[in-house]
Amino acid sequence: MQATAFAVSLNVAEPAASARFLIEHLGFTEQMSADGFVSLVHEGARANVIYLRTGLSSFKPASAAGSAGDGLLIVLIVEDIDTEYARLRDAGVPIVTPIETEEWGERYFQMSDPNGVIIQLVQWV
After folding, report:
1. pLDDT tens digits for range 76-90
2. pTM here?
3. Is there a contact between 113 and 17 (Cβ–Cβ < 8 Å)?
């Protein structure tokens, strides 16, 4: 298989609110949008995040059309976790897990977007 891109699509109550959060705080840009749909890209990370309003009839299969679930993380690798932590904390971003360092070298913190999606920034040390 030759993949040309990667995206994750999340069902949330207010797609525009989550999109604004990624644009304002994490450097994503909007690729396209429509009623109940926003597609974002982060050129540096070569990642796409798509938000769909929960309950859209176009979501298939309908049996899996619930909200973005427990245990889901959007993870971005950064070069300077301490600078990013200070910048986002000072901007009033809701930090849900302060900086921690795991024994295997993962230094990270977690924040919550307006729909409760957890976003984790990581630096490998």
Report:
1. 999 999 999 999 999
2. 0.90
3. yes
Q: Cα–Cα distance between 115 and 12 in angstroms, integer?
A: 6
Return the structure tokens found at 70: 């427990």
Summarize pLDDT for 54-111 with one digit per residue, the tens. 988 888 888 888 887 778 899 999 999 999 999 999 999 999 999 999 999 999 999 9
Which residue from 101, 32, 111 is spatially nearest to 76, judged by alpha carbons?
111
Residue 108 CB neighbour total at 10 angstroms: 21
Task: Tell me the β-bridge partners of 32.
Answer: 39
Residue 64, helix vs strand vs coil: helix
CA-wise closest residue to 82 among 104, 109, 55: 109
